[in-house]
Structure formats: C-alpha cells, structure tokens
Amino acid sequence: MGPSDLIDVLIIGAGPIGLACALECQKIGFSVLVVEKGCLTNSIYNYPLNMTFFSTSEKLEIGNVPFVCNTPKPHRSEALEYYRRIAQDRKVNIRLYEEVLGGFQSGGNYAIATTKNNYLAKNIIIATGFFDIPNGLNIPGGELSKVIHYYKEPHP
Q1: SS3 at position 105
Q2: Spatial distance between the Cα atoms of 112 and 118, rounded to a whole number of angstroms
Q3: What is the C-alpha to C-alpha distance for residues 86 and 112, in angstroms, rounded to an integer?
Q4: 127, 11 contact by CB (below 8 A)
C-alpha cells in the first residue's frame, strides 16, 4: 500500500485505541494504515519508567488477545511489549515517526499530508489521545531545553 493508493481507513495515532481500531477494521476486510508521529504507543513510552497501571491487564486488552502479566496490574514495560507484539503478530500497517501535517476532504475522500507522504483515504479515525500534549505553565523559561514535560524517574 503506497501513498497513491486509496486506503479504506487511515488512523492517526498508534496508541492502544488506534491499534484497537486498526484490528477491528482489518477484521472486516478494510485496508488500514496507521500513522504515528512517534514510536508505537508513544504516550505509554513516555510514562514514568516503573509506572504501574491503575487498570488490570484484562481491561487493557485489545483484539481478543490476552494480556498476561506477572501481577494483576501491569507495568509500563509489560504494556509496551504487549502492544508491540499485537502490532507485529497482526501485521498492522503502521508508519512510525511520521507526523500528520493536515488534511482536507477531496471528492468524498480525505487527503492527508504527513512529514513523509500524502495519502488518500475513504475514512479517517483520529486516535491521538491526550497524554502527549503537555499542559504548559506559560511562564518565562518554560520553553528552555532544560525544562522537561514528562516525568521519567526521580534521579535527574
């Protein structure tokens, strides 16, 4: 599937919801392309290193694939591995590190421009989530490179 092909469904965001949507679309025979500005499940990647989810693994499952983990509530690393395995095993067509720049409706379809390609899709699903958009304080110095917007671990 190349940039000139008409895609049935283009999904913006390769987090758990974007992946779940892709699996459901594949199941009914749609051609699917998932575009993600960062790595797979970029928001979970940015969670603190030793984070434990509040939800149980069963509530985080997608695509009828069991989420087996060592404790009732999985850790960040287990979630990253789970979603990576699903994307790989189910052969989800994903373009990572490709940011969507914009789009418009064109003759009943959607023309989507990214940092790497232009796509034409019959339908789009926006599954960008909210964790990846920091809520800045709008104070002097907030834009400096030493200011971080994600808590990873306490050492630094």
Answers
A1: strand
A2: 6
A3: 26
A4: yes
Residues 6+ apart with CB under 8 A from 77: none
What the block records as the tokens of 37 is: 């500005």
Q: Which two tokens stand for residue 119?
A: 């796509």
Cβ atoms 87, 40 nearer than 8 A: yes
Residues linked to residue 114 through DSSP beta bridges, in sequence order? 100
Give the total residue count for the chain: 156
Q: Mind listing the pLDDT tens digit for each residue in 103-147?
A: 999 889 999 999 999 999 999 999 998 777 777 788 999 889 888
Q: Half-sphere exposure of 19 toward its Cβ, with a 13 Å CA cutoff?
A: 27
What is the block-wise mean pLDDT of the chain (156 residues), using blocks of 10 residues? 80 97 97 97 89 93 93 94 97 98 93 97 92 80 84 74
Question: What is the reported pTM?
Answer: 0.87
Sign of CA dihedral 39, 29, 82, 64: positive
Residue 50 CA from chain centroid, whole number: 20
Residue 44, C-beta contacts closer than 8 angstroms, at least 6 positions apart: 15, 16, 76, 79, 80, 83
User: Phi/psi of residue 50, each to 5°?
Assistant: -105, 25
